[in-house]
Amino acid sequence: MTPATPRFRLGFLTHVQGRGDDPARTYRDAQELFVVADELGFDTGWVAQHHVPAGGGGLSSPWTFLAHAAARTTRIRLGTAITVLPLEDPVRLAEDIAVVDTLSGGRVEIGVGSGYSDTEYAAFGQDITRKRELTSEKLSVLRRALSGEEVRAPGFRVQPAPGDFTDRIWQGVFSGPGARHAAAGGANLLLNRAAYGFDAPTDEVQRPWADAFLDAWDRPRRPRVGLSRFVFPAKDRRTALRQIGDDVHRAALRLGESGAFPKDLDVDGALRRFHSFYGHPDEITAALREERVLPVVTDLITQFNPAVPDHDAAIRALELIATEVAPALGWKPATVPDLAGA
Fold first, then answer.
1. pLDDT at residue 314 is higher than 70
2. By CB neighbour count within 10 A (0-12 exposed, 13-18 middle, 19+ buried), where does 155 fall?
3. Which of 108, 134, 292, 298 is deepest in the core (most CB within 10 A)?
4. Residue 127: is it exposed, middle or buried by C-beta count within 10 angstroms (0-12/13-18/19+)?
């Protein structure tokens, strides 16, 4: 009998953050998460690009990192959520993607977005007021380059020749119009772990965005929706809070200063604003069953950010996600490499 197809793929996302001033250890720990996730059967592993640490992450060069992860893993797919596209040369980016895809045996997923940091845009000589325009322009060039077309000069094509990226380009959005725009361009949809600037719960805000994307989709292939969520299981709620509470609270206070969250949130308020799922695996499973966006997603992408749990606790959390939480929601670990991205 053919096994039933799981209704979503399971991923994890790391912002490659650590504590203190030892980036080498932070990078080693993040690489180890990819190895563990690969062994546990996670379908995808993602990294976020941040050029300045105040943006919530410590990885400026994701494709260098993913090339190393490709050498240490055998089947997990490798992606960015996201690469800050307006700050990249899209042809040069396509070359990096093609190299990592070749080294990994066709396991790359590319997620792009516009970013939000004034400092990053200034450092790269770009105008942040044009971020949407730049994203659209550069995504068009990136698509052509990854399709093996000539770009910018007669006879110039990216090498090595890219694989088929028709179903492997993702776009992060923060609105219904953005979701429709992604669908119109044929990109898969990436939704963030939290909605900023809204009073309603994140899933109430984002479900109409997902619906707008699906309504606007007019391609023959299946539309794909990737949902990022803060998921941190532990033996109980108190243990989880010891690992994540202070970090989440500090992050919420920083966002309160920028206006993305209300000011002076307490810990419980901060966890609600980050739409956090934490505690015993049974508690998390029950809460995720009520998540409004999850029923329409093809990819559930779990993350711990903005928390920076101890490395052993992070590994244990991945184990609980893969062995208890996700299976209770209908996921099954992959047994063979999924090189087609299906």
1. yes
2. exposed
3. 108
4. exposed
Neighbouring residues of 94: CB distance < 8 A, sequence distance ≥ 6: 142, 145, 146, 151, 158, 162
Place of tokens 């990078």: 27
d(CA 50, CA 41): 27
pLDDT (mean) for 151-158: 97
Question: CA 160, CA 319: separation in Å to the nearest integer?
Answer: 36
Going by their DSSP bridges, the two strands 188-191 and 277-279 should be labelled as unpaired
Provide mean pLDDT across the span 79-108.
Answer: 98
Token pair for residue 254?
């920083």
Range with the poorest average pLDDT among 5-14, 141-150, 194-203, 222-231 = 5-14
Give me the half-sphere count of Cα atoms (radius 13 Å) on the Cβ side of residue 185: 25
User: Which pair of structure tokens corresponds to residue 84?
Assistant: 């800050």
Q: How far apart are the first and last CA of the chain?
A: 20
**What tokens does 137 get?**
């322009």
Instruction: Give the 3-state DSSP-derived string for the chain, with helices as H, strands as E and coil as C.
Output: CCCCCCCCEEEEEECCCCCCCCHHHHHHHHHHHHHHHHHHCCCEEEECCCCCHHHCCCCCCHHHHHHHHHHHCCCCEEEEEEEEHHHCCHHHHHHHHHHHHHHHCCCEEEEEECCCCHHHHHHCCCCHHHHHHHHHHHHHHHHHHHCCCCCCCCCCCCCCCCCCCCCCEEEECCCHHHHHHHHHHCCEEEECCCCCCCCCCHHHHHHHHHHHHHHHCCCCCCCCEEEEEEEEECCCHHHHHHHHHHHHHHHHHHHHHHCCCCCCCCHHHHHHHCCCEEECHHHHHHHHHCCCCHHHCCEEEEECCCCCCCHHHHHHHHHHHHHHHHHHCCCCCCCCCCCCCC
pLDDT of res. 335: 65
